[in-house]
Amino acid sequence: EPEVTQTPSHQVTQMGQEVILRCVPISNHLYFYWYRQILGQKVEFLVSFYNNEISEKSEIFDDQFSVERPDGSNFTLKIRSTKLEDSAMYFCASSGTSNEQFFGPGTRLTVL
Amino acid sequence: SQQGEEDPQALSIQEGENATMNCSYKTSINNLQWYRQNSGRGLVHLILIRSNEREKHSGRLRVTLDTSKKSSSLLITASRAADTASYFCARGANFGNEKLTFGTGTRLTIIP
To answer: Hey, is A8 helix, strand or coil?
Structure first.
């Protein structure tokens, strides 16, 4: 069964460093998303992406964040200058015509 | 708040019993999706129910939706130890392939 994959599973970085989180959505899906979940808190929407552009973003998704679909399979989230409060589990998701959003296993980001 | 809110926050039952979790929301929906999350792991998609549907089944899972009361319920029948997890409802608004707004979740523990 097709699934969303994410790499790395765990990323440790120093405050102020740039990180790139990678995702491979399900191949025939057209809608892509990033969410995050701070430990013990709700899953929060960051950004949605369709037709090679951002379709919606949350207040969390400020100028430090960017997304890219560099080729036909990958979807990346970049955080330019990480802060301590960016520590969270980051989930990529994708959906197709059925509207069901399928999530990847997540990348745990730890900012020291 | 426009978020889905689950009730109860925590539920412990004996293996073999049925578990019912409820979700309420405040604004209109296109669909409502239920997810399972094992501790520290990814979100597993369980069922999507659309605003014009009242009930859906998948194996031991039954989801109902009452749009007049802005509520949904997830029933797991004949529970198993492996069902121990957190369960979330997530509201999809408007056109379907937009952001999901997650609730706080119900922590379900199945006692063997």
So the answer is: coil
